[in-house]
Write a structure and sequence with these properties.
mainly alpha; 4 helices
């Protein structure tokens, strides 16, 4: 499945040291919303962790690297 605009908005933040709470503060959404969107992103990518998601983002060209 393709990622939604909201999920794509998280991509650059997931590749940082920021917590879900800190990401939410920057995007003006709740920590819970960030977590829900991140989990949905992981499921769509077929990964089970933030580090696996980052590697997948890089592999498909959503992040430099």
């Amino acid at each position: 499945s393709s990622l939604t605009a909201a999920e794509l908005r998280l991509v650059p933040y997931l590749a940082t040291h920021l917590t879900f709470r800190e990401i939410g503060e920057r995007l003006h959404i709740s920590r819970h919303t960030v977590k829900t969107q991140a989990i949905s992103t992981y499921r769509k990518l077929g990964v089970s962790s933030r580090s696996e998601a980052i590697a997948r983002f890089e592999a498909i060209g959503l992040l430099g690297g």
